[in-house]
Each structure stands twice: as structure tokens, then as C-alpha cells.
Amino acid sequence: MNGQDVTRRNFMTRAVIGIFVFIGAVLAIPLGGFGILPVLKKKKPEWSDTGSFVDLVVNEPQERRFLEIVKSGWLEEKQERSLWLVKRPDGTVTAFAPNCPHLGCGYRWFADDRKFKCPCHGSVFDINGKVLAGPAPRPLDTLETQVENGKVYVKFETFQLGIGTMIAA
Amino acid sequence: MKLIDWLDERIEIRKLWSVFADRPIPGGSNWLFSLGATLVFIFTLQMSTGIFLTLYYAPTPDHAYASVKFIQNEVPFGSFIRGMHHWGAGAMMVVIALHVLRVFTFGAYKKPREVAWLLGVILLAIVGNFAFTGYLLPWDQKAYWATVVGTNVAGTVPLIGGMLLKIVRGGAEVGNLTLSRFFTIHTYILPWSLAILALMHIFFVEHAGPGGMWNAVARKPGFSEPLFPNQLFKDSLVMLLVFFLIAAFALFSPASLEPQADPTDSTYNPRPEWYFFFVFQMLRFFEGKYEVVGTLVLPAITCVMLYLLPFVDRDPERAPQKRKAMMALATTVVIAITGLTIAGARAPIVNAPAVTSPSVLAGRIVFDKNGCSACHSIHGKGGTIGPDLTHVGNKRNRDWLIRHFKDPQAVSPGSIMPKILLPEKELNELTDYMQSLK
Predict the structure, then answer these.
(1) Cα separations (Å) of B59 from A109, B68, B70?
(2) Of the four listed, A134, A166, B143, B198, which is most buried by Cβ atoms within 10 Å?
């Protein structure tokens, strides 16, 4: 094989590899975007009607259930949600997200102890959501509320768990 | 130690590569030999785009259409990926036809390559089935109706036709079970079958050695080139060209999505995709009791002929100029299929396409806004107090309609229809809509 043949062979070898890498790279962009970009889209929280205002008793947390319309891809579904509402003496309403900020278990209000307690790893919170005991890394997450026409509206959203700051999921 | 040396010590990777790469092609590499490799490339494209499409696709009739619409309109690059898959299928059909033609012309089905040919015929059938099953998945009008007709063809087989139809459809009708059946076939059964058979096909081609040019011995005695990089260089350039073509089509002519499947719509004109036009046209020729000739006899004869080719034609001669009868047969088939495809494309549309003149559409809105369907029915929807208006365009002329709208009692004494007091423009639009109901 003379010198010319070797360079020709090298060129063709490089060309073949180059073409395969090029096609692979060009395809990787739309395929990757297709699979990953939709999950990065931030969900815009909407107002949900969580029930009447007058039924709330000052400083007595109440668990409320409501139906949220959730759009999952191309499907719109009614998803049942729950949260805790606390009416304050000044008339405002605090809404706590239903999942413990440690690892997401549902916690409950214990009226005799006057504390929120999580059944999974022993986190305990006071009526303001402050951590009294347990591994919870931050206080209970609060949701934006609005009282209108005797109804309590809440902007329901979920948050990242197991970290010290409240960041939307 | 370099990775390649580590692997070579354990699995003789250099030898494995050499068996594949250094294989000599008698007569040298040729652009025509790239067709097979291009098929492998297109299959890889279809696999990757197809797998990603199933990330969002839902294979049930109540969600399939919405999920495809979501992919098409909302997922980033969704239209492009779907377009690649759609045009990739078309490209596969073109390239496989060219590949079969090339192999036939080069006599590469003859001894010792018969096994590779037989596997190839099965692969051709698999590719056809890929297209047929994939077609139904978007569950739009085109998908649904083409499948109704296509599966009915199975029903025309004598004796077992009825049973065959039910097995293919998963029941008597094209419905939920048909869709899940077709989805399973398209995404599980066929990909595995094709991958395994294609590997075997390639292995046996390698094993027998490529035939190369038929006059390899005569042209330049002893001349041959290795598969890598010479043939693969040509192959990769063809792959690049095909890739650009498919991507260009996907970008500038996105895959269509018709309205959602409507089994009650008798105004629709069912048509298969262009690569099945020749079958579609054949079905138009054979009427009544001869239908089975078009649906079963001719396809069966073709399959059998393809399969028996290496046994019928045992003459070792491979040069096309010395195989005039065979080449004449091939030419006839190519011309016939091409002609049937063109005729199929031009087949007259029986149902007038749905009228979409703006005035008629506006008239429909006027009809709905004024609550006319409380008393009148159109296509089975509405009240029965007044006459059915489904074919009113055939019964009343424009003049009568307008006079009637303005004063029903003057034209139809005893009528309880209220006077329809509308601005001139809306009255005309409403009348246009009435006249379109034929």
C-alpha cells in the first residue's frame, strides 16, 4: 500500500466516523429536547376553592379536601387534594401544604396536644408551622390564600422536600 | 494499557472487526450496494424516533388522538420527531423497493445466497406490516378508515376470512382491542422480529460473501475493495443524504393529523398511504365474486413467486444482459406497480370534500345561535317538532328559503315557526348553509 492509498484510507475512515457522529449529535438534540424539556416547564398554580370561610374556627386547624384540575400532558384530570387551613384572630387564613417538608408524608393536627405531628419520622410542628421536634428541615410550607365571597381560595402548589428552603417543585 | 488492547486480549475484538471490515467486495465498492446499509440506518432512525414517541403516546381510542395532538403541537420538537417517523416510513418503502430491485438485477438471490434472499422476503413483509399497524395509531379519520378497509381485505379470504378478520381486529369491529393489538404488534413483535431476522440476513450475506459486480471477474481480474472504509464510506454518504432528505421533509412538510376518528362519518373518502396505492387500485378492478382475486390470489401469487425465485431460476448466470426473460419480468412488475400507484393517486374522490366555504360555516353558526335545532334535526341531531333539514338543499330553492325565513306563515300556512328576523348578511349565510345540506 503506497502513501497515497494510506491517506485515502485515513480520509475515508475519518469521514465514516465523522458522519456517524454528526448524525448522532444532530439527532440527540431534538430527541433529548423532546424527552426532557417538557418536564422542565414550571406549572403555574391556579386558585382553587377550598370551601367556606365562616366554617373555620379561630386557631383551630381544619383539614379541607377539594378537587384540583390537573393537566398532565394532554390529559386534564380532577385530582383530589387536601390541605390544612387555620383562621387567625386578625381574620386572615393560613394554608399549610399537606406534605411534611422532610420526605412528604401527610401530617395531622392533634387537638389535645395542639400540635401537627407527622407519622413517619417524628416531626412535630406548632400551630404556626414552626418545627418543634424531628428531622423536618424547615417549617410547614404555606400557600397563598384569598378570601372572597365567603370562600377561601388557595393557590395550590407542591414544593421540593428534604431541603432547608421552600422551593416550588 | 489501551482499552482496545484490553478488549483484544479478552474477546479478540480486532479479529471480530477484521472479519467484518476487511471483507473483500469483488469488483470494488459500489453506490448501489449502499441500499442495504441505508435500510439498517432508516430502521435505527425509526426505532429511536418511535421509542421517543411512545414517551407520550397513549394507545387507547379515548386518548390516542389527544396524545398525538399533544406531541404534534405542544411537545418541543414533537412535530419534527413525528415528521421524521412519518417520512422515515416512506423512505423505508422506497429504499426497500430499490434494494430488492438491485439484488434481483445483480442475481444475488442465486446460489449460494438463497437463504439471505428468503430472509429478505420475510423482512419485506415485516416492513409492510410495520407501515400498516403504525398507520392506525394516531386514531384520526385517515387512520381509522384505512384500517377498516385494510382489515376487511383479510375478511375476503374464502372459508377462514371471517375468523381471520376477527383475529386481526381483536373482535368484529375496529375498536379498542384493535388499537392495542396493533400497538403491540408495531412496538413489540415487529421490532424484535425485524432486528433478529435482519441480523441473520446480514450474517448470511457476510458468510456467503458479497456477490459484488457480476462481471467482477471479467472487468479487472482480482480487483476488490474492503468493506471498511471503502464501501462504508459510500454507505455513510448515502445515509447522510437520506437523513437530510427525511429531516427536510419533516421540517417543511409536517406529518398531517386529520380530525379524530368518526365511525359514523359517511362523507369521508378513505385512502391508504401512497405506498399502498397500488394495492388500493388493484382492489378497484376486481368486483363482486372476483374481489378475492385482488385481495388474495394476486398477493399470494406474488409472495410465492418472490419466495420460490431462487429455486425457479437456478441458472448461475448473474449478468442482467444475459438474463433477458428475468429482466423483462422485473421491468413488467415495476411498470405495473408504478402505473397502479399513479392510477391510485388519481382515483376519483366519490364524496365531495366537506364544503368549507366561509359563508356556509357562518350560516351553521347562525343556525346554532338562533336555537333552530330545538325544532329541527340535521343528521340526527335536534328536535322533531319541525321538518328534518338533513337534505333541505335538495328540496327547497333559495328564493323559497328566504321568503320562508322572513314570514313562515305566508309560505306555509298553519306553521308555528317564528319569523326569523336577521340582518341581510346573516340571512344569506343561513340560506347558504341550508342549500349546502344535500
Answers:
(1) 43, 10, 14
(2) B143
Q: What is the pLDDT of residues B286-340, one digit of tens each?
A: 877 787 888 788 888 988 999 999 999 988 888 888 889 999 999 999 999 999 8
CA A145/CA B180 separation, integer angstroms: 45
**CATH architecture label of B358-436:** Orthogonal Bundle (1.10)
Q: Which ipTM did the prediction report?
A: 0.78
In total, chain A counts a number of residues equal to 169
The pLDDT assigned to A2 comes to 63
Q: Is residue A160 a part of any domain in this protein?
A: no
Taking contacts as CB-CB distances below 8 angstroms, the residues of chain B near A73 are 56, 67, 70
pLDDT tens-digit profile of B43-91?
999 999 999 999 999 999 999 999 999 999 999 999 999 999 999 999 9
| CATH architecture of the region B27-346 | Up-down Bundle (1.20)
Q: How many CB atoms lie within 10 A of CB B408?
A: 18
Which residue in B20, B81, B223 has the most chain A C-beta atoms within 10 A of its own C-beta, making it the best mutation to test that interface? B81
| The C-alpha cell that represents A143 in the structure block | 400557600
Distance from CA of B213 to the nearest CA of A (A): 22
Min Cα distance A78 → chain B (Å) is 16
Could you tell me which chain A residue has the CA closest to the CA of B65? Answer: A74
The boundaries of the domain holding residue A106 are 47-155
**Distance between CA atoms of residues A86 and B28, nearest Å:** 84
What's the confidence (pLDDT) of residue B364?
84
